[in-house]
Amino acid sequence: MKEAAVVIIGAGAAGLMCAAQVAAAGREVLVLDHANKPGKKILMSGGGRCNFTNYYVEPNRYLSHNPHFCKSALSQYTQWDFIALVDKHAIPYHEKKDGQLFCDNKASDILNMLLAECETSGARIQLSTAVDGIESLPAGGFLIQTSKAGQEGADAVAIKAQQLVIATGGPSIPTLGATGFGYKVARQFGLDVYEPVAALVPFTLTSELKTLSSALSGNACQVSVSCNGQSFMDDMLFTHRGLSGPTMLQISSYWQPGDALSIDLLPGLDAAEQLRADQHQNPKQQLKTWLGHLLSQKISEQWLPFMGFQPEASLASLNGKQMDAIAMALHQWQVKPAGTEGYRTAEVALGGVNTDELSSKTMQCKRVAGLYFIGEVMDVTGHLGGFNFQWAWSSAWAAAQHLAQQG
After folding, report:
1. Which of 76, 81, 123, 174 is the right S-S partner for 29, CB 3.0 to 4.6 Å?
2. Domain spanning 2-198+347-404 has what CATH number?
3. Structure-derived torsion over alpha carbons of residues 264, 265, 270, 275, reported in degrees to the nearest 10
4. pLDDT tens-digit profile of 153-176?
5. What is the CA radius of gyration of the chain?
6. Does domain 203-340 match CATH 2.40.30.10?
C-alpha cells in the first residue's frame, strides 16, 4: 500500500495548480490521472494558445445555482495573481479583446509552467492510472484503489491519503478523456449534484434553417443575440450544422431546449433609418447590394430570399411598410435551434456538485472531512473568455491554502 498526505485526482488546470501550492507548503502530494499526458484540455484551449484568464474577472461572469459562492475564491486568488505567476515564468502573452489573455506562442507554455511549479515544489504526478474505488476510513482519510488505466485490476495498488481532492473537470470533449467521474464520487459520498448540461457549445439547426446555414458555412458577422434576458454581442459563425462563434457559445449557457434566439444582424445600426436615407441617396441600388455592404454579399444573397425578400429589388421600389419589415427581420431574426452539438464540442458543462455542499472559502465538503472539489466539477461555470481557467486557478488556490494547514 502506498501513502500520500494529499491525493489529487485530475492532472488538469485545477489539479496541477492545487498540487504545486500544497506541495510548496511542505506536504506530500500525489496527483493521479487516467490519461497518458497531463493537461490535455489546456493544450487545446484557445485555439492552441490558451486563454488563461481575463483582465475583467467579476462574479457576474459566472453561472451557478448559488451566484455568491465564487466570490470568496475569486477574491483570494485574482487574475492579477495568476498574471504575476505567468510573468515570473517569462511567458509572453497578449490581450486579444475584451480582456482575454492568450499566450503569444503555445498553450504548452501554461502547462509547462504548472508542471515546473509541481516539480519545484516536489508534487508527484502519476499518469495512466485508473481510480477503481474510493472509500473513507474509520479513523479518517481515504483509501483509493487504482490500477493501470485501460486494464482494470492489472497492477492494482491501494493508496492511503489523509485528504482527497477531486479535480476531474466535467464531461465536455470526451475525446480528450473527459468523464463524469467527479460527479460519481460526489454521489457516492451522498452529495447533491446538479445534472450537467453542455455549455459554451455551438447550436444545431434543422430543415430550411440548416440548409441556409450550410450554404453560408464559414461566413461570419458580428451580431447581438438575446435569450432568457441575457444578451451578448460578438461574432456569429455559420456552420454546416448550425450556428457557432463566440456569441452563440456565450448564449448557449442560457438557452433551454425549445427557446428561440433573437438575433440582431446589424447591432448599433437603425436599419429602417439607414434604408430610407440610402433610398434617397441611391434609389437604383439593389437590396442585396445594400445589405451586402453591411454584412457580406454572400450572407445578403442567401438570407434575403430565405426571409421572403426580393434581393434584386431596387431601394426605390420599397415602400415604408416593406422597409420596416426588412429592418425588423434584420434586428429581430428569430431562430429556434434544434439543439446543441453536446459534449463533443462543448467547452464546459453547466451544473455539477451543488456548491451548498462545499465551503466557499476552502472548497472542502461540509459533510465529509478531508474531501475537496475544485474547478469545473462543481456548479460554477464561467463565460467564454478565460473565466473558467481563472475559476480553476482560484478554486485550486483556496483549497490549497486550507490543505497546507492540515499537515
Report:
1. 123
2. 3.50.50.60
3. -140
4. 557 899 999 999 999 998 887 777
5. 25
6. yes
